[in-house]
Structures are given as C-alpha cells and as structure tokens.
Amino acid sequence: MLNVTNVSKTFFPGTVNERKALIDVNLRLSPGDFVTVIGSNGAGKSTVLNTVAGRISQDEGVVALDGRDVSKLKEHQRAAQVGRVFQDPMAGTSPNLTIEENLSLADKRGRRRGLGLGVNRAKRERFAEALKVLELGLEDRLKTKVGLLSGGQRQALSLLMATFSQPKILLLDEHTAALDPQRAELVTRLTRKVVEEQGLTTLMVTHNMVQALEVGNRLIMMHEGRIILDVSEEEKSKLTPEDLLAEFGKIKGAALDDKTLLQ
Amino acid sequence: MITALELGLIYAIVALGVYLTFRILNFPDLTVDGSFTSGAATAAILIVNGVDPFLASGAAFVVGTLAGLVTGLLHTKGNINGLLAGILTMIGLYSINLRIMGGANIPLLGEDTTISLLRQFAGSGWSSVLVLVAVALVFKIIIDWFLHTDAGLALQATGDNEQMIRSFAVSTDRMKITGLMLSNGLVGLAGAVVAQHQGFADIGMGIGLILVGLASVIVGQAIFGTRVVIQATMAVVLGAVIYRLAIQLALNAGLNPNDMKLMSAILVIAALLLPQWDGFRKFAARRRRGRSALHAAAEATLTEDANINGKRVS
C-alpha cells in the first residue's frame, strides 16, 4: 500500500546547521498494516511521516501510494488519499466552525467542493451516527463550535475526521502525546477501534513504548535518520518495554529524552 | 440623512467584501482601494458610451475580481507578503484606472444610471432607501449561503486553520484567490454604484476605502456580535450604515470634510485598541455574562466533567 524507497532528506544542506534527517530509508506497508514508529528525538520519525504526507519533499528516493508514484504531488493533492492526525490537538480541526461543519469538510476529502450545502438533514444524521462511536456525547452538540471543546474531545474528533472518508493510509504523529493520561488512553482505544473496523493501513509515531508494543502489528525503531529495527507481529508480542530500552542502549551514544524514560 | 442611509447601504457591499478577506480569510487586503475605483471607472466609461447601467455595473464586478486575482496570484504563487501584494496591485491600479477613464474624472450627469432608474421608480425618499435595504440584504444572503456551501466551508477553514484544511485535500492557494476575487468583485461593484449615486467617477474616490470597510466590519461586529455567520454579516451591513451615519453627524456638527479620513483612522484605532484595555474587557465580560457564548463554554466544561466522572472514559 505504501512504498518508501531509498528516501533521503537533508535539512539546511551546505550550512553549519546541516542535518541528515533521513538516510536511504526503505519502508513497505502492506494493506492493513498498523506500524508503530519509535525512536529518540531527531531520529527522523516525524520526517518520515511528513515526507509521506508531502509536507516535506525528499531529496532522493520515491514515495508510492497504492502502486502510484506520488513523489511529485503537492501536500493537498496527496491528502486526497492520506489521513492525518497531528500532535497538537488544535491542529486537526477548524475552531471557528461547528462540529458538523468540520465533519462536512472531512466528508468531502478528495471530492469536488461545489456549491451544494455543506450540511443538510441527511448529512447531519450521518454525522451524528458517526460521532456516537466516540462515546463523548458530541452527537448531541453538532452545532457547537469546535474551539469550545477540550483538547481530548478535539483530538478524538480529529481522529474521526481523518478516517471519515477511508484514506488509503492513516498517519498519526504522536497524536496522544499532548493529552493527559486518561484522554490519551481514550484516543488510543478509539484509534485501535477505528483502524480495526476500517482495516486502515496506518503509520503511528509514538514516544510511549508501552503504546508502541500494545498497538499495531509491527514496530520499527529509528535512529539518526535510519530504520534500525523492524519487528513483526509475532516477535513484537514477546517484547517488553525493557527489551526496547536495551535495544536503545545498544546504540552507541543514543540519547533518550526524559519523556521516553518516564514512560 | 436619507443620502447617508443610501450611501451606507451601498457601502455595506464594500463591508461584506472586506469581511470576506479580513475576517474569513484573515487577510488584510489593501487591493480594495484600487479595485473600488476600477469598478467605478469601468462602469462610468461604459455608461457614458451608452451601455446598459446594470451591464456596466456587472462589468465593474468582473474588473474587481481580476484585481483580486492579481493580488491572489502575487501572494500565493509569488510568495509575496499579503499586505505588500495588496499594495502593489493597488498602486498599479492607479495608472490602470486613469487609462480606463482617460482622465481623472468622468461626469455621469444626464446619463441613464442604476440610481437614476431607482429615482424614476421609487423617488428619492424612504422608498428608495427600502429598495437599497433589499439590495444589501440580497448580497448578505448570497454571502451567507455561499459560506455554508462545501466551497464556502473550505474558504472559512482556510482562514481558520490552514494546515488542517490542506490535510483534507483543499488547495489553500486556490481558496485564497477565490476569496480575494469575490471580495474585490463586490468592492468593484460597490464602486460602480457609488459613482452612479454621486454622479461621477473620480480617480481619488477609493483612497482610504480599506478603512471604511474595516471600520464597518469592526464597529458592526463589536456592537452586534459575530457568533454565527448570518449574525456576523448582518453586523457588517449595519456597521456600514452606522459608520456612514456617524460621518454624517460629524459633518453636521461642523467638522471639516477634509478631516474625515483622520476621523476614520482614529475610529478604527480605537476599535482595535479598546478591547485590549483591561477595564473595557471587564465591562464586556460583565455585559456578556449569561449570554450564549459563555453558556456554551460552561456546557462544554460540564459535559467534560461528566464524562471524566462517568464511565464514558475508560
């Protein structure tokens, strides 16, 4: 479903700030794969996601979605097939529009946006039905502006919106990191549920080792722009967070940030 | 008084245009100073040459959209800062407007104009004001409708959260260009009608127009609120009328017409600074207490708590 082939990216080339974010990265996701990505800060996790999404253009290599080379496509063109949830709960929704209007925007992903009404009775019923999955009671508050919701509610809504029109691939960029533990738990649970129900091919970056092991059917570890570990479902089920920490320890000079250690 | 009301209702179309860029797209567009005159110039030269005044006003709308297109392309494809892109188009239009008019001024006395037809049909009393009220409301309703279509929602989201709407496959460049074209089209049309109302088009008639638009938007929304789109656009229309009446009152009180631009600037500055002042904020909060916005916020918190306490969050 997703083929990342020999992708490299260097930021600020030729300056003192030059940083090799990705070095010859290869990654293949089969349909329905749910891959969690871990690694220390600056390992290139987010860069991989941003390269797939088209927010960053790679220096070398090819990104292909469903057999089609999308390397040359702009971010909004790729977005027709890519669903995304960002780390910042404020980033994935439009605060001054209502819940139903936000869902209407998500509903039209990849289709022509013309002069038909964004929300009508039929759509409203469908949106309310979809919101019930979140179990947050948002289906009764369709006309509430999203800016009035809490971070957890907004992130749950972002997840629903990102998956609303069956994207070919779902990219989750530490989407539970900015939430309190209770809310993070809720959003993680919803993520598993939605991905499972729709059989979505998913790439999820996380700082949380436990989450990385519990969720998904495959795990990759990145360090300094390379994928240094790729664990299949079977092996993954036997791993513990301690094993992962030991794996980190093997990398000479790998710096673990406090956040990683605390989790 | 009636003239001030009439002008206010015509300028309401300018205010709706400025609302689209300034509030919806979050883009302070200075093109309007030029496109207003372009609309007036286009309509005037066509009317003088015997074209139907309604057709001429339509042409003014089209010329306005072209001005918006230029600013939009400069900003999105040329990566030029939005303010600068607007200024560049505005300055360039000054020469173009002179070319269109072939001089600095075109008198429309004795020509058939939309306003002369209005006078024939409704006289120059309250009935013509009513006709203009209907016209302003039609434009308000069209904007309301547009902003609730799929395209309109994408336009709103572009001004609200660019990153988000791009991740839903919308070209924010195209949306900004669309918004700028629509806005300047409305402004060009209003310029055409103002020229017909005052009986001439003049190269200087657009100078400071952005302040008129901003003052209308800010004053109207400060008084009448912005909770939902239909309320916000109504506030904008009323703001334009109030602004025009305030100018009329100031003139009646003996202020020098030459000082009006300074007055407009001071009014906008006051409207922008007052909300930042603590005393005003407390006053506004007290006034708003019990109103729907806070209700909704309170409701949000309550539901939130209920969800945490209940078993909805496992």
Condensed summary:
Chain A is of the alpha/beta class and 263 residues long. Chain A is 35% helix and 23% strand. The longest helix of chain A has 18 residues, at 181-198.
Overall description:
The complex is a heterodimer of chains A (about 260) and B (about 325). Helices cover about 35% and strands about 25% of the residues of chain A. By secondary structure, chain A is an alpha/beta fold. The longest helix of chain A has 18 residues, at about 180-200. Chain A starts with a strand and ends with a helix. Chain B has 2 domains: about 1-260, ABC transporter involved in vitamin B12 uptake, BtuC (Orthogonal Bundle); about 275-314. Chain B has helices at about 1-25, 30-50, 55-75, 80-100, 115-120, 125-145, 150-160, 160-165, 170-200, 210-225, 230-250, 260-275, 280-290, 290-310; strands spanning about 105, 200. At the A-B interface, helix 2, strand 6, helix 3, helix 5 and helix 6 of A face helix 7, helix 8 and helix 14 of B.
